[in-house]
Design a protein that fits this description.
36% of the residues lie in helices and 19% in strands. By secondary structure, it is an alpha/beta fold. It is globular and about 35 Å long. The two termini are 23 Å apart.
């Protein structure tokens, strides 16, 4: 499977979190790609870019951080992702076009309790409305202080999506 990463508004395609999670994905025999959105701050233009990339993909997982979480979730409504792993996703934010979602695949959310950019309450709301697993952990918006924990959660998520062998 391929893991496609979508970075946040003010970060880049190969920031600390994405590098760490890409290493974990590769160790679990997945190929990785990180989309560069640094030329636009428009979340819905980023969705279009991701959808264009996904035209050539058939077996993939989407991972998004902050605005990239929004981008991954919205794009997943138009494609058949195998799973979504979202880090402090920018959901229910003023000015973002989509405020309701159609969840079509397994999804897991990680959010820091001390996030002062995207309120943790937004992820709690999403998890309640859509019945999604949510991990509220120590950390701020970037989650860098909890990167080891994020990595373990990501590894468990990847393992949960792996096909099981018949017994």
């Amino acid at each position: 499977m391929k893991v496609l990463f979508s970075h946040g508004k003010e970060s880049g395609p190969w920031g600390l979190k994405i590098k760490r999670l890409a290493t974990i994905a590769e160790a679990n025999h997945h190929s990785v790609e990180s989309i560069d959105y640094s030329d636009t701050l428009d979340p819905d233009l980023r969705v279009e870019r991701l959808l264009n990339v996904l035209k050539n993909e058939s077996d993939f997982i989407l991972v998004g951080s902050s605005m990239g979480g929004y981008v991954s979730l919205v794009a997943s409504q138009y494609v058949e992702a195998k799973g979504l792993f979202l880090l402090a996703p920018a959901l229910f934010m003023p000015g973002y076009q989509h405020q309701s979602y159609n969840v079509k695949c397994p999804i897991e959310i990680v959010h820091g309790w001390s996030d002062n950019v995207i309120p943790p309450a937004n992820s709690i709301r999403f998890a309640q409305e859509y019945g999604s697993p949510l991990h509220l952990i120590d950390g701020d918006h970037r989650l860098n202080s909890s990167i080891d924990r994020v990595g373990k959660l990501f590894c468990f998520f990847l393992e949960s999506l792996a096909p099981t062998e018949p017994s």
